[in-house]
Structures are given as structure tokens and as C-alpha cells.
Design brief:
This protein is an all-alpha fold. The protein has 9 helices and no strands. Bound molecules: zinc ion.
Length: 178
């Protein structure tokens, strides 16, 4: 399903982190809350929680309109569009030793990867190709990110969904250069 083993590993790691964040919150809340009740409390005040907890709460909720996880349903589903917007109110705390803004980039890229059907092939290629490096603590400069984007823009939608890595993107460009 994922375009590369690296991305599959990155996506799996995010899922593990979301589950761990949720388990810690549940332990802190103590007995007496169902997951659904706890999720409702978190989503009422996303700005009070770290983003993994908010995304874990979304994963434990159901959109009243479309039945998907809120924020993962089709574009144009009002509760999903709202949920996708307010997830970004959550807190982002950079890990020690990474460039400032790395955590924000991970959060955005992982949100796209986890709800990839809401995005165009170009948009999801851009974020999914970067996600494994972001998780390893890298953060592309604006120029580097623009170069990746420019290369992706020269691909067809089908090629965007097939490209597996930034290296492949670069090699491809060198092969086809005049
Ligand atoms: Zn929905």
C-alpha cells in the first residue's frame, strides 16, 4: 500500500507513537472514561494537548456525517473538514537535537499520509517522500523543499503515485535531462 518500505516503517512508527500517547493519557485519566468519552474531551480542547494525542483521539472517533474517522472522510464533508482544520491547533514540541519546526513538518506530513485520499497525487507525493527523513530528524531548507516540489510538478499523477524516494526523483530527472 505504501510507496516504499521506508514510508511504511515511518507510518507504522507514527501509529505506535499515537497509541503510546493515547495509552499514557488513558492511564492519567484513570478508570471511568471510555475511549470515546476521553476522545471527546480531548477534541473539545485540542490546543491543550500534544498533536499525537489529538490525532489518536480522532482515530478513536467517528464522523457523524460520513462514518469515517473525523478528518479522514471525503473533502466537503463538513465535520471532516472541521476536524482536519482543528487538529492543527494541537501542540507541537520539537524533539531534542532536531531543527526547529521538524515536529510541525512531521505532523503535517503524517496527517497527509494518514488521510492520503483527501490529497492530490502531487501533494501526497511531496509529503510522503519527505516523511521518513523528517522522522529521522532532518528538515529540508525552503530551497530543498521547492526543488522537490518542482520535480514532482513535472511528473504525471500516475508517476507521482509510483515514485518511491527523493533519490529516485532526482535520478529520474538526471536521466531525462537534455
Ligand atoms: Zn466526515
Amino acid at each position: 500500500m505504501w510507496r516504499s518500505e521506508r514510508l511504511a516503517a515511518a507510518a507504522a512508527r507514527i501509529e505506535v507513537e499515537l497509541d503510546a500517547a493515547w495509552a499514557a493519557l488513558s492511564a492519567e485519566a484513570g478508570e471511568g472514561f471510555t475511549d470515546a468519552e476521553l476522545a471527546e474531551l480531548v477534541l473539545a480542547e485540542p490546543n491543550r494537548h500534544e498533536w499525537r494525542i489529538v490525532d489518536a483521539a480522532l482515530a478513536r472517533s467517528v464522523c457523524p456525517e460520513c462514518g469515517a474517522q473525523p478528518g479522514a472522510g471525503p473533502r466537503g464533508c463538513p465535520p471532516c473538514d472541521r476536524a482536519d482544520g482543528f487538529r492543527f491547533a494541537a501542540r507541537e514540541i520539537d524533539r531534542p537535537g532536531v531543527p526547529a519546526g521538524n515536529e510541525h513538518a512531521i505532523r503535517v506530513a503524517s496527517a497527509v499520509a494518514r488521510t492520503r485520499d483527501r490529497y492530490s497525487p502531487r501533494a501526497r507525493a511531496g509529503y510522503e517522500l519527505l516523511l521518513p527523513d523528517l522522522i529521522e530528524g532532518a528538515l529540508p531548507t525552503t530551497a530543498e523543499a521547492q526543488a522537490v516540489k518542482a520535480r514532482i510538478n513535472r511528473l504525471s499523477p500516475e508517476q507521482c503515485d509510483r515514485v518511491r524516494s527523493i533519490e529516485e526523483l532526482t535520478e529520474r530527472e538526471e536521466r531525462t535531462a537534455p
